[in-house]
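chain below, 391 aa
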Amino acid sequence: MLDNMLFKQLMKHSFTIPVEVTYPNGKTEKYGNGAPQVKIKVNEKIPVKDLLRNASITLGEAYMDKKIEVSGSLQVLINSAYESANSFLNNNKFKRFLPKQSHSEESSKNDVQSHYDLGNDFYKLWLDKTMTYSCAYFEKPDDSLEEAQMNKVHHILKKLDPKPGSSLLDIGCGWGTLMLTAAREYNMNVVGITLSEEQYNAVKQRIKDEGLEDQAEVLLEDYRELDHLPFDYITSVGMFEHVGEENLGEYFNTISRYLKSNGVALIHGITRQQGGAYNGWINKYIFPGGYVPGLNENLTHIIESGMQVADIEMLRRHYQRTLEMWTDNFHKVLPEVRKMHDERFIRMWDLYLQACAASFESGNIDVIQYLISKGPSARTLPMTRDYMYKD
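prediction:
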């Protein structure tokens, strides 16, 4: 009885939109004014002690196991919960972070492979043709996902103001679109590194298919173990979220060590303006070992590593739109996904995409590009930002 009362109080104060909740006993309650925008059906009792222990894991697993069903947009519902000051997502009584994560080289490899080695065929179903699994950049309202991903690649490379024949290291190269674009269109000599065997094999084949063996190389190894000469430029997209809170300093120190004097790096990643945080459910099911660092945290590490900030750009709304497009794509290919994975996986992945979109929409997380240089800020770059936007 007490659990039921507490759970109802939790629901009552957790949303900024009108919501209808049907409880396991069949009774329905409406919260908020107006017609419900989302309906929640609770099929089994959710112990409040589990919510207090870790609300994100408890509710995420309940959704995956159909203990909770949602009619309407998950993104709208979760965004509403983030916007409610009294929500379990914002109330300190319900916030619980995971213990400190392990980020040894072996655990980092296992973490990356558990996510990215789901298989290239799976990602091909709902990513665009560039196979880019990070925030796109929408220059025009009607940009397709593929156009926006290529916009992002060029936006990053233009920020570096790269010189033909210069060297580029791409840390966490994904399926290789950025590094191979740099080689093919900017005449750079590139090295990409990844811990994903699926990505490594795909990039290696692309290098061969595009005849870029003299300009491009991909390595399957930890970013901390690279044995190469310093580089003129470094890019790293969607990488530092995986290194762990305790290794952020080492990550930026490594970038500084790999950069030539006055070299320039563009680091693009998910950042919280409110300070760093873990998410229990994301850590357990999507990105083991993941940690979203705070803005101040990253800036401190950049400065302490002997580098300086030349430019910062927030792309939060771009990632919201990217995730919304991925969600639409994922829904369109569900018959194909069902041939690969069961319904629990599908509900998990759908929740992941929509919850992330809601988190960006609400400002709970951001994605930021840090343009940094080894030495005085932007010593080798043009005086104004105009160069970033020229063809």
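Residues 93-117 have pLDDT under 50 and may be disordered. The two ends are 66 Å apart (CA to CA).
thats it, cya
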